[in-house]
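Researcher: I'd like a candidate sequence for this fold, 533 residues long. If you have to choose between options at a position, lean toward the conservative one.
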């Protein structure tokens, strides 16, 4: 079985090719439709160019709901457009047309809604949109509307859209955010995406995060496409970062994905809940510190990181990890596809898989790395490492790893295996062999039936493989063999079904007297392999 995830991603060709440069402000005349396909261990991107109409109408910001006598909108002396609302009833402000400057919105007494309906806002010396109130803003993308916001390299602030409080993006339209200076969306509060289509593309010179929120990021529905292309040394582009803030009287510092589609290609980290008490705290009281966790409960998350990791010092480093939670990463459901140069998943205290489908492959560092606990309790988890020097699973000690259910396979130059006290499902681990691309492995029961198996994907080689399956039973004998499948259906290497298997070599047989059985070198192997296939 091949997994194919296709999304029509509308990405500005002008952003990708540099035609919409901040210095010339050339007219954008086309967009690119990008199809991202993940099959086996390969991510394929194809592009088709289609024409679109341009926004040239006069800019306007109209109050469509609220107290009209408390509303004003006009250009200021700097040529930026200021909207001020002093009412106490919630306001709805419709924005459309072309603005060469900044839209500044102030509403100190009431929450408000901005409806973008064919708006093209191009910030020059400031962000495209500044939300300058402590009240909550809902940004609605009008049905089928196409909206653009961008900044320039002269932006004196830190984002294309900046806000002093929480922001929710909703609607059935599309918003393109083109980032030339630093961040894409920069908020002192939290960001929620509800049913919108948002595309954020960073220039190679942009030195920041495509989304930077201090309190939280929540994805409930819609699509979010991010290209964090910034490659300035020491300031490489990240996808989504939640910074965390001390002293918040609410949950703070987390990423939560409940549904929708997220597609990120980034030079640096793709998703990070980045608060770290030792580095970020300014007070000795830790009771009000953020809890830096990433929760994935549903939806589809597709991530590719491209940067080459380096570490000169704490302040001069690049870690292009896929998903990072300085405290926890917990996956309860959904589909997660990770192809990363650094760790695909990294957490300070816990990585936990409870359901869903996870495919993770790393090329230059460990694939799943917990500095403490790791649990697999459900779902399907496929963990590959294409480096002969790094591990598939690294949780520092086998006693930190607990397996209670679900299906998993992990390959690498060593793996931790489940020896945690709560382990209640069976694992078989084989090490000491050099398994290379195309090798077909099967776990056979006492009647030579295939229980589970693995076909080594293109570009992958390893010396340790670990199988976990709810199909393994107590006090049964299983044989791990190399051979040839007939009619095999694979899912990123994991054998889902087959018509038959002919063994050419039996590597080892296990009798499941304990929950975890192993043979050969399973931990990190710095030396050579015992044999090859």
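Model: Candidate sequence:
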């Amino acid at each position: 079985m091949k997994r194919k995830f296709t999304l029509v991603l509308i990405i500005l060709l002008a952003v990708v090719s540099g035609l919409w440069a901040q210095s010339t402000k050339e007219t954008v005349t086309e967009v690119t439709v990008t199809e991202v396909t993940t099959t086996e261990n390969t991510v394929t991107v194809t592009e088709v160019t289609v024409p679109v109409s341009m926004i040239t109408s006069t800019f306007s910001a109209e109050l469509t709901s609220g107290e009209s006598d408390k509303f004003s909108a006009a250009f200021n002396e700097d040529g930026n457009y200021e909207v001020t609302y002093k009412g106490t009833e919630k306001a709805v402000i419709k924005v459309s047309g072309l603005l060469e400057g900044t839209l500044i919105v102030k509403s100190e007494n009431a929450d408000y809604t901005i409806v973008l309906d064919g708006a093209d806002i191009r910030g020059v010396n400031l962000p495209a949109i500044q939300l300058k109130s402590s009240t909550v803003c809902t940004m609605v993308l009008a049905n089928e509307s196409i909206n653009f916001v961008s900044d320039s390299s002269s932006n004196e602030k830190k984002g294309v859209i900046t806000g002093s409080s929480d922001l929710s993006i909703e609607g059935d339209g599309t918003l393109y955010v083109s980032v030339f200076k630093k961040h894409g969306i920069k908020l002192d509060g939290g960001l929620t995406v509800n049913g919108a289509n948002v595309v954020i593309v960073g220039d190679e010179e942009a030195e920041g995060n495509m989304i930077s929120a201090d309190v939280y990021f929540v994805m409930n529905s819609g699509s979010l496409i991010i290209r964090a292309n910034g490659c300035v040394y020491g300031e490489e582009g990240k996808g989504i970062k939640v910074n965390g803030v001390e002293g918040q009287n609410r949950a703070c510092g987390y990423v939560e994905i409940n549904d929708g589609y997220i597609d990120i290609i980034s030079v640096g980290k793709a998703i990070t809940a980045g608060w770290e008490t030792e580095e970020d705290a300014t007070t000795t009281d830790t009771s009000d510190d953020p809890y830096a966790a990433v929760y994935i409960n549903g939806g589809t998350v597709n991530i590719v990181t491209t940067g080459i990791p380096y570490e000169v010092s704490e302040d001069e480093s690049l870690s292009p990890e896929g998903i990072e939670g300085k405290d926890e990463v917990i996956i309860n459901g959904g589909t997660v596809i990770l192809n990363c140069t650094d760790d695909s998943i990294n957490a300070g205290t816990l990585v936990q898989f409870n359901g869903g489908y996870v495919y993770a492959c790393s090329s230059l560092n460990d694939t799943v790395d917990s500095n403490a606990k790791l649990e697999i309790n459900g779902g399907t988890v496929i963990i590959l490492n294409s480096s002969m020097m790094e591990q598939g699973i690294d949780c520092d000690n086998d006693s930190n790893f607990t397996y209670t259910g679900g299906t998993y396979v992990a390959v690498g130059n060593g793996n931790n295996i489940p020896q945690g006290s709560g382990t209640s499902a069976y694992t078989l681990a084989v090490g000491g062999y050099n398994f290379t691309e195309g090798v077909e492995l099967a776990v056979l029961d006492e009647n030579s039936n295939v229980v589970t198996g693995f076909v080594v994907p293109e570009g992958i080689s390893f010396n340790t493989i670990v199988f976990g399956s709810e199909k393994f039973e107590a006090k049964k004998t299983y044989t791990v063999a190399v051979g040839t499948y007939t009619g095999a259906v694979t899912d990123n290497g994991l054998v889902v079904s087959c018509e038959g298997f002919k063994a050419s070599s039996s590597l080892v047989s296990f009798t499941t007297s304990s929950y975890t059985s192993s043979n050969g070198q399973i931990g990190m192997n710095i030396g050579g392999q015992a044999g090859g296939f």
